[in-house]
Amino acid sequence: MKMTKWIDPLFKAGTGALAWLFVALSALLLMILVEAALPSIRAFGWSFLWTSHWDAVRDQFGALPIIYGTLVSALVALLIAVPLSLGIALYLAELGPLWIREPLNMLIELLAAIPSVIYGLWGLLVLVPLLRDSVEPFLAKYFGFLPFFQGPAYGVGMLAAGIILSIMIIPTISSISREVFTTVSNSQKEGALALGATRWEMVRMAILPASRTGVLGAVLLGLGRALGETMAVTMVIGNRPDISLSLFNPSYTMAALIANEFTEATTPIHTSALMEVGLVLLAITLLLNVFARMLVMSMTRKTGSKKS
Amino acid sequence: MSNLGRKIISQTMIWGALACAMIAIVPLISILAYVVSQGIGSINWEFFTHLPKPVGEDGGGMANAIVGTLVLVALSCVWAVPVGVFGGVYLAEYGDGKAASIIRFTADVLTGVPSIVIGLFAYVILVLPMKSFSALSGALALGFMLIPTVLRTTEEMVRLVPMTLREAALALGISRFRATLNIVIATAKSGILTGILLSVARIAGETAPLLFTAFGNRVWSHDAFEPIAALPLQIFVYAISPFDDWHRQAWAGALVLIVLVMSLTIVSRLWTKRTYQVH
Predict the structure, then answer these.
(1) Residues of A in contact with B235 (CB under 8 A)
(2) A70-116: per-residue pLDDT in tens?
(3) What is the span of the domain harbouring residue A191?
(4) What CATH number does residue A123 fall under?
(5) Model-level pTM?
(6) How many domains is chain A partitioned into structurally?
């Protein structure tokens, strides 16, 4: 009987300490990156973000082309992944026959289970040759008047990275959107159908307007994943810090830059510059995630209370 | 006519949505097909028992990388699973206040942090002071990535345990500690385990955070303070090499990795389904 007196508070304190340890580590992560990036921040200031000369030999570091490559590759990925994911999510939540939904969902989720390095391997040895020999010549021939499809077809480059990334973020966007779609209240859907709407009109008039916020959150979470993805992109993007409108051109992303140069960085300022790249990447993904989570949460919480 | 038109549009859109799903499944099938067909040829006894051979020499295996991945995963679990599970229990049992929502929020946000950034963190914390790449620093990075998912799934699973069970236990006069450990956690056990398996499947395939922590190793490593090989790292090195021999090895490594990861994922998914049906 005596034991219960101290063991319960101890248990609460012990488990609480572990939970807070995790929070402390996360805070430490942020602090450590800032500290490690400080020499570079002091040396280059804001010009780090706006100049485009990344030269490890002369210790000159401007990350603009790398930031550009990160944003554009993620944007290309979104352009491909968002329409596909929304179609998938609608089919799984609303349009498809019930018996097909569960197995189809499982297959889409398997996409999320494939390790990044295997996407890279497949991208490098299967997708890149396909792009180089068929897709890019085709695009150049018929759409070559657009600035996006000009120049030599290397295979590796922005287009390859965008495609790989789009495949990788489809499960993220589609599963969250699906969740958001299913939270639209049944009375809304039934109301639309009762008024004589077809299935698609019901989706357009009842489901889509009600889930705009949540879908935006899903897209932003997908964007966050695309920005931070490392291995697959490193393997197919060509790793050259150029700014070019053409999607055929090799490019570079922040994560790929860190992956390639970090162990080879010899001067302290080079290491620090890479740390600053990591810090910028962390800051962008953190902001995106916080914002996106709040959007998704505001959606699911609202309807969660309605259901019960 | 206009009604027919509307029906046709509706049906077209439904087929369009199905087409989206089919398009997404093409790469899945292609990846699996390539990994199996290209990898299976190099899978043999030697692959699991031998060290990698230099370029040009036939054969060789990934024994050290396979063991390395298992060691890294085990080391990560040793520290991260207790943090995640007990942290999750804390959130479910005591976490109704504002402070606890900070923990939840941190966990949710941390799942979105790029893995390579976590590698940088482990590098500064462990590699720099120890002046050596090491299995330990790799396990710090991987474990850190494991915690958020384990924490949140544990919390969810523990919350699913009916309040009446707790009350019945407490009414019998046992301590909250005993009730939580022997009744609540025991009831939520399979759900918690599912969460752990899923997160392990995710970190087992991680490469980026290992690049400058575990670093990779061509030979066996003998203690946790040395660089250690890992399957994903080895696949990466072989894949970006220009040698056909090494590409074949990369495919074989990918096959082993994918079988490991997929079976963990599928087992845990089927498991969740069963647990949910029981409830």
Answers:
(1) 117-118, 121
(2) 999 999 999 999 999 999 999 999 999 999 999 999 999 999 999 99
(3) 2-307
(4) 1.10.3720.10
(5) 0.93
(6) 1
